[in-house]
């Protein structure tokens, strides 16, 4: 699908083409006023004079147009003219904006040129064709680069110094037992295990004179060798 052809904004010399364009754009103009009034909730009115109409086109109606015009005229002059521009002021603003863009491009190109000359100096080539203004520009750029480098070095040193001065949290220390303590604990474990074995296995055979209600004395239950 082909895009819409860009229309050149210029006076249409042919009467028929001009009238056809007027009728088509008149409807679009009214439609746009209605849309901006609904979408943005702002009061809008329009008056359109033309040689093709016996009466001017007024939107939305004459009473609303009169009310908005009266309200506009009753506003303070500073507020009323704050964003109002005529054709001359509009062109002046556009020229100022374009001049700012041009100055920005000139500055960028000048910086690139100075950087190329600096690279030539580092390569050992002589600076030919550079006037006093160019040398001053190069001097300013070199000083600015040195200042930026010194600032970065200082910032990194301060950061490293701050990291070194931060208190380090030591890991929890585990107290190692001495050799005597380890041996003592091992002996206690062994004695405890042996006592358990002794209690479970040998107690019924060596109770001596302890009476037993069912079998009398335990000694009577010892089997002969």
From TrEMBL:
Domain MADS-box: 2-51
One annotated GO biological process: positive regulation of transcription by RNA polymerase II
A GO MF label: protein dimerization activity
Cell compartment(s), UniProt: Nucleus
GO CC terms in record: nucleus
Main localization (coarse): nucleus
Keyword Transcription: yes
Protein name (database record): MADS-box domain-containing protein
Organism encoding this protein: Malus domestica
Lineage: Eukaryota, Viridiplantae, Streptophyta, Embryophyta, Tracheophyta
């Amino acid at each position: 699908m082909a895009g819409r052809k860009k229309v050149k904004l210029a006076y249409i010399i042919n009467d028929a083409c001009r009238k056809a364009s007027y009728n088509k754009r008149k409807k679009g103009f009214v439609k746009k006023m209605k849309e901006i009034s609904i979408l943005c909730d702002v009061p809008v009115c329009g008056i359109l004079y033309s040689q093709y109409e016996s009466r001017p086109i007024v939107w939305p109606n004459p009473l609303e147009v009169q009310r908005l015009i009266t309200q506009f005229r009753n506003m303070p002059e500073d507020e009323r003219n704050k964003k109002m521009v005529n054709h001359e002021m509009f062109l002046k603003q556009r020229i100022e904006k374009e001049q700012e863009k041009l100055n920005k491009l000139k500055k960028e190109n000048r910086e690139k040129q100075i950087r190329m000359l600096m690279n030539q100096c580092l390569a050992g080539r002589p600076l030919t064709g550079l006037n006093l203004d160019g040398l001053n520009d190069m001097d300013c750029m070199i000083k600015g680069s040195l200042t930026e480098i010194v600032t970065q070095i200082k910032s990194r040193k301060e950061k490293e110094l701050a990291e070194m001065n931060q208190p380090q949290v030591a890991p929890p220390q585990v107290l190692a037992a001495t050799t005597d303590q380890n041996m003592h604990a091992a002996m206690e474990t062994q004695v405890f295990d042996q006592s358990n074995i002794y209690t479970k296995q040998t107690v019924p055979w060596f109770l001596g004179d302890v009476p037993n209600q069912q079998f009398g004395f335990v000694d009577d239950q010892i089997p002969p060798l």
